[in-house]
Specification:
single chain, mainly alpha, 2 domains, 12 helices
Length: about 260
């Protein structure tokens, strides 16, 4: 029997999946993992046996909770492919400058949302199990409002002008190295803006790694239940560290003149 959702609406009533989604989940639970993965691979909504994204989200979360790494990886790939295809229509190259970068940013932030859900913030994806398309449309619009149509940014060092927001220990230590032994400079709002601008100018692969470090994610972990940067970016930890090191070398070059 499918696990109930934990979220509640503004009236205090629990979220409930539509009956057809509950029925779909019950049917899929009766299959073994291999048969489910074959069903998940059906890409057209018009095809017989197509599995709605609400159900994909449910089994993605369950695969992580049960430690089914291979199943999680495959479902994650299918779900992200669907998200990418939907963004081609809604954030199209013909209607928006820098559309590819914006699509990448939205997908990256959605992957981060999945990671946060997997790491214990268990309500981050509840609404996606109820009405996936509506939930993702709201998510996409929220990201677009934050980054703007011409700006493709990682998470800022300080949001909405709140200079007190914490910077991850690893980024702060690296920044201290940029400063030639003056780590207190990281508290200077002007320098924080300069650092944020320098991070924004990094290549996308490096910027994504630094952005995730800023949000406190680990590069790698021996604990299979921890969602890491390597898992989110679907590469090995050495690749992540190489991207980080290249990013830090570039930032040091850009910023050391003000050290």
């Amino acid at each position: 029997m499918p696990e109930p959702l934990k979220s509640r609406d503004r009236h205090g009533s629990p979220f409930n999946r539509p009956p057809e989604i509950e029925a779909c989940l019950t049917k899929l639970e009766s299959l073994d993992a291999s048969a489910r993965l074959q069903a998940f691979a059906i890409g057209s909504r018009k095809s017989t046996g197509y599995v709605p994204s609400e159900a994909l989200t449910y089994f993605l979360r369950r695969a992580h909770a049960t430690g089914s790494k291979n199943e999680f990886k495959q479902i994650f790939g299918v779900l992200m492919k669907r998200v990418g295809q939907s963004l081609i229509a809604t954030v199209s190259d013909s209607r928006m400058a820098g559309a590819q970068g914006i699509r990448d940013e939205i997908m990256g932030r959605f992957a981060e949302r999945i990671a946060k859900d997997c790491n214990g913030r268990f309500v981050m994806l509840d609404f996606f199990e109820v009405r996936f398309d509506l939930a993702f449309a709201r998510f996409r619009k929220s990201v677009l409002r934050q980054i703007g149509p011409l700006s493709v940014l990682t998470e800022p060092l300080a949001a909405d002008g709140e200079a007190g927001q914490e910077i991850s220990r690893e980024v702060e230590e690296a920044a201290a190295d940029f400063l030639g032994g003056d780590p207190q400079k990281i508290d200077d709002p002007a320098f924080r803006l300069e650092l944020s601008a320098a991070i924004d100018a990094l290549p996308d692969d490096q910027k994504r790694v630094v952005g995730l470090l800023q949000q406190g994610f680990q590069i790698d972990s021996k604990d299979p239940n921890i969602m890491t940067i390597a898992k989110m970016l679907q590469c090995d930890e050495r690749t992540v560290r190489n991207r980080r090191d290249r990013a830090y070398k570039t930032l040091k070059t850009v910023l050391q003149g003000d050290a």
